[in-house]
Amino acid sequence: MTDDSGFCWIDFDNARGSTLLGHVDPGITEAVARAATGVAGSATGWSPYVDTVLERLHALCGGEAVGLFRSGTAALRAAALAVREATGRPLLLSCGYHGYDPMWYPSGTLLEPNADGVVDFYFDLGLLEELLGTPERVASVVVSPDHMHLSPDWYREVRRLCTRAGVVVVADEVKVGLRYGPTLSTAELLAPDVWAVAKGMANGHAVSAVGGPRALLRPLKEVSFTSFFEPTILAAADVTLRRVATGEPQQAVREAGERFLRHARKALADASLPVEIVGDGTFFQFVPASEELEEDFYRAADAEGLLFYEGDNQAVSAAFDDAVLTDAEQRFTRVCDRLSRHAGSGPVSEAARYRVAWNVMDGLREAERDREATEGWLARLLDD
Ligand SMILES: Cc1ncc(COP(=O)(O)O)c(C=O)c1O
């Protein structure tokens, strides 16, 4: 990307992980431009894209019923409230970010629901188990999967606890869905009853989707909104879903990311800089030993034109070909050179790992801890 001053950036933010295929992908641009001429229908009513987009989503993610929305936030609110209405149970046990809607704000008191009936368990399995002690009050457990700070066992345990309690699982795959492969990232581990996807389905265009059993999503049957049939957005989704169904862009992105990571880890080690990197080529995150180093790290990256999503997850796109990767690697080496005053500092502490994980998950990373430690970390991190 080139800014107004002519300075060239390499984008690791990619609209917060939405532009999997890269900015201005020719196939998407062409389909959107064509739809804008009106040949693919108008915003007033049905067009063939509605059916192909829904069919593609159904084929990739399953679900007897699939609904479309405009943002991840809207999809999650609709899904969670539909399940609550369908089950007739009052509580939503939540972990992770589900959008800007105030309904998800934590109550401020551990294990207490907020005014919207949402209780945050911050990815802590001990807290979840306690909350599932009264399953007849729980409409669903709503999880935003993270594959940088949680292991497969974490999801298996959530599935086990929810099956035992007879509670519905909603996977908020707005960020990770269709990104790790041509389906939900937790399809096998969590086997969610209801899912939501967004960022992986339209390369940054404003659409999201919810799917699941008819019985749980029935309250969404009559949902409609002004821009539901808008054809340029559906065109972007149609092309993106066709491409991600092959699994090829995800694989290319994963490999490009892995190559960058190999270089970055070596450059950091060669420069004796205490910065860990968690995750893999699909999504990864820097874990600097101190906040001071973190600040200098992102300033140095800015100076070298590496556009990182500060403090959050980095996501390369399919536009990272050999030339871009080589350029990015050279820039990253220069970032490390700029940080020489931090050489030999560190090491990366548990506190640094918890803090960085909190930035991306709004919750606690997976680690051994008892109830006292959980409360201690929460007091510290919620206070920051
Ligand atoms: C897991 C998750 N859920 C929901 C949302 C909200 O999506 P949107 O920003 O499209 O409203 C996001 C956004 O980053 C997200 O990562």
Automatic annotation (TrEMBL):
Superkingdom as given in the UniProt entry: Bacteria
Cross-referenced Pfam families: Aminotran_3
Record GO terms (molecular function): transaminase activity
Cofactor(s) essential for the protein: pyridoxal 5'-phosphate
Record keyword Cytoplasm present: no
The entry's keywords: Aminotransferase, Pyridoxal phosphate, Transferase
Keyword Translocase: no
Family: Belongs to the class-III pyridoxal-phosphate-dependent aminotransferase family.
Protein name: Aspartate aminotransferase family protein
Taxonomic source organism: Streptomyces prasinosporus
